[in-house]
Write a structure and sequence with these properties.
8-stranded antiparallel beta barrel; 13 strands; alpha+beta; about 240 residues; disordered N terminus; Porin; two-stranded antiparallel ribbon; 2 helices
């Protein structure tokens, strides 16, 4: 009887060991099938939809062509081409970005004679116009989308709006002319306006329409090369970092 019981115990123990081994093998097999293979480089792929905060410094060339000004006046002395500098902070998720920017732009045109629309010399009086520290500080929100060409290069486009706070003055002095030749124009006694500032609103609307490219030489660093309209035409470069 004892030998029979010992034999039965040995058989049951063997069966339990074999069953446990089979169950462990099956679990290991299931884990292998459900788990992706490890990255040979030892790194993990970053979620492309991860929310990132970016900060950058922008440098922009702001243009006011003489032809654009002369849509509103008969004659302007010239156009403006000055550099502006600013800071921007952006929140990006996937390919969509919301950007807040602060920027200072100077606008300067050489002093000279301006003639109002419809006026003719010498019948009408032109203005001698001087730009005295004129420019604006802008704050705007811009919504941008990115279309990836390759991992390091995307097309970037969007628009937005904001406000511009006017700094400095544009001054005018009344002139009279002896003929249609500008060389005969000059100041005269009793002029109503002598270096008098134009009445310009202290705050103006800024409207953005932007298109360009974003270059990402490494994952977190970005360089934006873009142009468009910020109420005035511009072309510029921004360099920054996504956190």
């Amino acid at each position: 009887m004892k030998s029979r019981l010992a034999w039965m115990s040995l058989c049951c123990g063997a069966a339990l060991v074999v069953g446990a081994a089979s169950a462990s093998a099956q679990v290991a097999l299931d884990d292998e099938e459900g788990t992706p293979p490890p990255d040979p480089s030892g790194s993990t792929l970053e979620d492309p939809n991860k929310t990132m905060i970016g900060a950058g410094i922008r440098l922009r060339s702001v243009h006011v062509p003489q032809g654009l000004i002369e849509l509103f006046v008969e004659r302007a002395e010239g156009g403006s081409s000055e550099f502006g500098i600013g800071l921007e902070v952006a929140r990006r998720k996937g390919n969509f970005e919301v950007q807040f920017g602060l920027e200072y732009d100077k606008i300067y045109i050489e002093p000279g004679i301006w003639i109002d629309k419809g006026d003719m010399l010498p019948q009408d009086e032109p203005d001698f116009v001087e730009f005295d520290g004129f420019g604006w500080i802008t704050a705007e929100v811009t919504f941008l989308n990115h279309t990836e060409i390759i991992k390091q290069l995307s097309v970037r486009y969007g628009g937005g709006a904001g406000i511009g706070i006017i700094r400095g003055d544009i001054r005018r002095t009344d002139y009279r002319c002896g003929s249609a030749d500008l060389e005969t124009c000059g100041e005269y006694g009793g002029a109503e306006n002598v270096r008098r500032p134009y009445d310009i609103p202290p705050v103006m609307l800024v409207v953005n329409a932007i298109i360009g490219v974003q270059i990402r030489p490494v994952d977190k660093v970005f360089i934006n090369v873009e142009g468009g309209i910020r109420t005035l035409p511009f072309f510029g470069v921004t360099g920054g970092y996504y956190f």
